[in-house]
Inverse folding.
């Protein structure tokens, strides 16, 4: 028999698919064991086995390879995984929204923020918002710096705090809030921390933390690296996308980094990290937020106005 087409599979999932199917799929891929999945979900192991069998029957394909150590997902299961995550995330958001309305009627605002916007726009301000608008619930998730507009494509964000994009998505508008720049930073005990304006030659004696490939900070580093003729030994081979770990490395006093000032704003304010005057420093597009102002409800509009006050 020919394999079912997409319409047939969609209708089967709509009519017979269950949220629990998606939950079991996610946990089974995470845990790799029917027994551990049953324990994690407070279910009997035969029930987990039955749910997997139901999904495989609906889709007419095998979702897991069974072996002595547990199970491994097939390519079909991996295809379903991001869909399952979106369904479960949407249900959590829906539960938050309904609970918020039942309890205090203030409304829900879903925020997706890039790391730079977290530091430059939200850090140190959320307590003020919570005190001024105690009935509005705000759910904030950190977006990947490589896919900052993901909240638009998957419909999970009402406001996206990010750097001004070159092209504004259809139906959205951008509000500028904070100017930004790439700057050289180091820990306060770094040998160059007390140098007024280190030269490129002096900076080339340090050890540099690497940003991810393709980021504006990494591109700037590579440009300076070639121009100044620095040796390969200036590169630290730990590449991080997590600001907290970057800060930890900088505070050791052994490393330099090129970062958006917004990312390091709180560290600079607390004095654990220093900004160096340098010819490497360069302006960046401003930070702000994307939103659909004409369609925004009251809670979203209130938070947007609050951001615009920065």
């Amino acid at each position: 028999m020919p394999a079912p087409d997409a319409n047939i599979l969609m209708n089967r999932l709509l009519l017979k698919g269950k949220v629990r199917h998606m939950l079991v799929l996610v946990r089974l891929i995470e845990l790799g064991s029917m027994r551990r999945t049953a324990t994690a979900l407070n279910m009997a192991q035969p029930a987990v086995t039955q749910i997997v069998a139901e999904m495989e029957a609906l889709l007419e394909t095998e979702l897991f390879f069974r072996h002595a150590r547990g199970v491994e997902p097939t390519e079909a299961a991996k295809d379903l995984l991001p869909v399952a995550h979106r369904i479960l995330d949407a249900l959590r958001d829906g539960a938050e929204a309904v609970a918020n309305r039942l309890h205090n009627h203030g409304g829900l605002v879903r925020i997706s923020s890039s790391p730079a916007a977290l530091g430059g726009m939200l850090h140190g301000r959320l307590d003020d918002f919570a005190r001024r608008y105690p009935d509005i619930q705000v759910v904030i998730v950190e977006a990947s710096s490589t896919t900052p507009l993901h909240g638009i494509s998957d419909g999970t964000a009402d406001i996206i705090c990010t750097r001004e994009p070159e092209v504004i998505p259809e139906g959205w508008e951008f509000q500028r809030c904070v100017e930004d720049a790439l700057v050289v930073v180091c820990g306060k005990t770094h040998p160059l921390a007390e140098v007024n304006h280190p030269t490129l030659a002096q900076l080339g004696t340090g050890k540099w933390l690497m940003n991810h490939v393709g980021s504006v900070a990494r591109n700037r580093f590579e440009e300076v690296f070639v121009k100044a003729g620095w040796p390969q030994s200036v590169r630290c081979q730990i590449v991080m996308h997590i600001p907290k770990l970057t800060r930890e490395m900088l505070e050791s006093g052994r490393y330099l980094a090129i970062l958006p000032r917004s990312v390091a704003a709180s560290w600079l304010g607390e004095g654990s990290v220093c900004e160096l005057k340098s010819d490497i420093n360069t302006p960046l597009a401003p930070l702000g937020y994307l939103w659909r102002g004409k369609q925004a409800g009251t809670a979203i509009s209130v938070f947007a106005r609050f951001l615009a006050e920065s």
Remarks:
- Residues 75-103 form the longest helix (29 residues).
- Residues 38 and 48 are 6 Å apart (CA to CA).
- The first strand starts at residue 64 and ends at 67.
- The chain is about 45% helix and 20% strand.
